[in-house]
Amino acid sequence: MEIKNILVPVDGSEGSDRAITHAISMAEVCDAKLNFLYVANINQLAINACLSDAILEAVTKAGNVILDRAMEMVPSGIEKEAFSETGSPAVVILDFAVSNNADMIVMGSRGLGIVKGVLLGSVSQYIVEQARCPVLVVK
Amino acid sequence: MKRKRILVPVDGSDGAAQAVALAADLALATDCTLDILHVSYFDSKTDSQADSWLPDEVAGAVGGQQQEVLDKARKGLPEGLTADFHLRTGNPVEEILRFAHQQQDWLIVVGGRGLGAMEGFLMGSVSQQLLEESPVSVLIARQPKDVPPKGESVFSGFSQLTDLVKKSLPPLSRK
Asked: Rounded distance, CA B105 to CA B162, Å?
């Protein structure tokens, strides 16, 4: 099996940074392209506040900062691209993996979730269960 | 990051065979050595000496079985790969993690079956427990056919059920 297309969902957390580092070394050895994906959890925001343009803009900006930082970590010579989507993270990440033919998903074991006691983040857990390609859970 | 060894726990299942194949590809690309490990609850020391009235699958010797599992993994390996084979006895998750620590493995590659909500719950998935407890990064080998199409998952079954309940309830009047 060839790994040419690696999907790295990012959320700006420490775990996601470690996942980026791991994904870079994976891309180096496999000569693969890195696809960074930031998913703005709009569903959750809609519950918390009335969705206004200002909020949307702020969310997009936050996502761009995280994506820019990820892109900067990649040494030159490795193909890379950044994507930004909105929706429920787990679902969007899986759909993205399918539509972009990801050969591997590299992600942290815990994101920015609120429940610290849970060992595996709910997004990671869902993706581990449902993904159709290999998933690397970085510790 | 040190990349020297990749650990693949095997149990003779198809999922384990997939994990070996994926790990072998990675090991070739990264110039790593594979550690192929089989953990069984019992070993030849615990085999009963006396003849048993139980069938062989239950009371038979396990020594041969362990070698079979490793041999199966050995067959799937490509040329030019260095791999070490190991046998341990005890609780699989504990032994795998202890082994990974001793060998300072860079990565653990496991099969992806049995990770679903129900399978994990009913059968006590080793992969799931490893994912949660491992201090080492875990790669889950997975092929598209392992995952049921969306319509068949437990979650969609649940959402169908809630849709049904919603439909059968009178609509809420808004003030």
From this structure: 45
